[in-house]
Specification:
Helix content is 28%, strand content 24%. By secondary structure, it is an alpha+beta fold. The longest helix has 23 residues, at 136-158. The radius of gyration is 30 Å and the shape is globular. The N and C termini lie far apart (72 Å). The relative contact order is 0.11.
């Protein structure tokens, strides 16, 4: 028999009644009933109730034992009385009569409880993460993470992908997010960078002649954290395939994600493949975002032309439209029973988001005809009302909210309003996972801050243009073979078909001001590799953290990460980032220069 246990704390049932057993685990909680002390013993697998009478010599010691101390218990399995059975517990029909015990480890006073799943400040939870992880909810989340990774790894192997590991110490790249830099001791004054992603390496794997590659890759980006993004580091299922088009990648990955979310989605339904494909342009027009939550049954409609016509006289919007602004309408179903406060609250929310408010119109049936009502209805002639009803597919029970602004701002805000309305009116079916692909991203965009053309997405993506015609194309009209996998409003993965032609890469970078020499200098490894025969290839990199966050129904990525940094990119458990000794700095040839205090 194992020195510490004959069974784990979820194994015992009525089949073991009368048997002597040995259990080890943490004291989850105690209940003193005077003549009896009940003690719940917990390990990774579950909980077993143990009991001891007050006349027993060991009673007093166990009574004083602090929660989360580690015990070894020897005893006999007995049947619980019918009134004390716990049908919610796997071991709820039995308990263990304590005969002997050994304290394997005493616990000090806890900084936070494990029993009860109470909310505690994040600072305490991260500082004592090893205790936080004992809580059932957190324990299950991390266990789920492990199962998801194992599932994905097995599916990739089944689909003939080979698992490789790419370097962690590499060269800094001038593109993308900010790098984490690592100083070199042997080459003082020079730095390695931690990889933001294995992008160039995985392309070189394809160039090396391997057909399909994957890894569960750690990625490092020196950027601020948010609820769905960890500061510092994250993990992704990085993959690449040779001799493929965009559709080949979709067909390979869709069944994997359908099966993954069906198996671990806690009974939620998953839309079957093929997943819907929505162009970036259509997604921005219909949903106001490139990460649409398709569970919200609302599509935004452009009604700019109606406000341009002589059939409307809403001057505030009309004047803006004449200056090049657009008007977006957000149809809201079944608002006929909503009180006035619903409209007022939405208007106040819009103001809190920086807008001047939200114009709206309600609809009702009168004399067998749907008419517009509300503050701005008087500015619309009957023809305009009819066209709005037709274009926005309005019934007499619905309402419309209007947003007027520059195109990008109008799209963004109407998208936020769509989400707000969906949540407020509980229009979202929380029992569903709905996947879609967002395709045809623009290759370039105009950076208002820098006042220049820049890349919208991945600069190594293949443009959707013939190489001979590329130079003469307006960069803002060039699309790329780039795509995102989106589920329930979260981007789970970005991907692309890669540009495998060196001469084409030079043209692509020239549009943003890079000379041929600059490209060769900054991406020498990639250009060199592509110059010796590269196959057409493409891939993607689904984020493990976001996948598990969705499956666990959590709102914050730190709830599914073992030892996360806090919002300020600090490791409160280990005390990082930390100071280093002068000796270490000297070995690296680094001197710390203190910031001068501002006067």
């Amino acid at each position: 028999m194992n020195k510490y246990r004959s069974h784990n704390c979820s194994e015992l049932s009525k089949n073991e009644i009368g048997k002597k057993v040995r259990l080890s685990g943490w004291v989850h909680r105690k209940r003193d009933h005077g003549n009896l002390l009940f003690l719940d013993l917990r390990d990774h697998f579950g909980i077993t109730q143990c009991v001891i009478e007050n006349k027993d010599k060991n009673f007093e010691v166990l009574e004083k034992l602090k929660p989360e101390s580690v015990l070894l218990i020897d005893g006999e399995v007995i049947k619980r009385s019918e009134e004390t059975e716990n049908k919610d517990l796997k071991t709820g029909l039995i308990e263990v009569q304590i005969e002997n015990f050994e304290i394997l480890s005493n616990a000090e006073e806890l900084p936070m409880p494990v029993f009860g799943e109470q909310d505690y400040p994040e600072e305490i939870r991260l500082k004592y993460r090893f205790i936080d992880l004992r809580r059932n909810e957190m324990h299950k989340n991390i266990e789920l993470r492990s199962k998801v990774i194992s599932f994905l790894r097995n599916k990739m192997l089944e689909n003939n992908f080979l698992e490789f590991q790419t370097p962690i110490l590499t060269a800094s790249s001038p593109e993308g997010a900010r790098d984490f830099l690592v100083p070199s001791r042997t080459h003082q004054g020079k730095f390695y960078a931690l990889p933001q992603a294995p992008q160039q390496f995985k392309q070189m794997i394809m160039i090396a002649g391997f057909d399909r590659y994957f890894q569960i890759a750690p990625c490092f980006r020196d950027e601020d954290g948010r609820a769905d993004r960890s500061p510092g580091e994250h993990y992704q299922l990085d993959l690449e395939m040779s001799f493929v088009e965009q559709e080949d990648i979709f067909k390979t990955l869709e069944p994997i994600f359908y099966n993954l979310f069906s198996e671990f989605g806690k009974g939620k339904t998953v839309n079957k493949n093929p997943f819907p494909k929505i162009t970036f342009k259509d997604s921005m027009e219909k949903y106001g975002t490139d990460k649409p939550d398709l569970r919200i049954p609302i599509e935004i409609v452009d009604v700019t032309d109606i406000f341009k016509s002589d059939d409307t006289n809403f001057k505030i919007f009309k004047e803006k439209v004449m200056k090049g602004n657009v008007v977006k309408a957000i149809p809201v179903p079944n608002t006929i029973t909503q009180p006035r406060s619903f409209f007022d609250n939405l208007n106040n929310w819009a103001i809190s988001e920086g807008a001047s408010g939200m114009a709206y119109m309600t609809f009702e049936k009168k004399d067998n005809k749907i008419i517009g009502k509300g503050p701005i209805a008087k500015f619309f002639k009957e023809e305009a009302i009819f066209k709005i009803i037709k274009d926005c597919k309005i019934t007499e029970n619905d309402s419309l909210f209007f947003v007027c602004n520059k195109l990008s701002e109008a799209q963004k805000f109407s998208g936020l309003a769509r989400q707000k309305i969906g949540h407020t009116l509980k229009l979202i079916d929380t029992k569903k996972f709905i996947f879609c692909w967002i395709t045809d991203f623009p290759m370039y965009h105009y950076d208002e801050k820098e006042k220049k053309i820049d890349f919208s997405h991945n600069p190594f993506s293949m443009p959707q243009e013939n190489i001979e015609e590329f130079d003469n194309k307006d960069p803002l009209k060039i699309l790329a073979y780039q795509y995102d996998l989106v589920c329930n409003g979260y981007e789970l993965s970005s991907g692309a078909i890669r540009n495998h032609l060196p001469e084409y890469l030079f043209k692509v970078f020239k549009k943003v001001g890079y000379s041929k020499e600059m490209v060769k200098k900054n991406f020498s490894g990639m250009i060199n590799a592509l110059s010796y025969g590269a196959p057409p290839h493409g891939g993607m990199a689904p984020g493990i953290d976001r996948i598990v966050m969705l499956l666990a129904n959590e709102k914050n990525i730190r709830e599914v990460t073992l030892f996360p940094l806090n919002q300020n990119a600090q490791d409160l458990l280990m005390g990082a980032p930390s100071d280093v000794s002068e000796k270490q700095l000297k070995e690296l040839g680094i001197k710390i220069v203190s910031k001068k205090s501002s006067s």
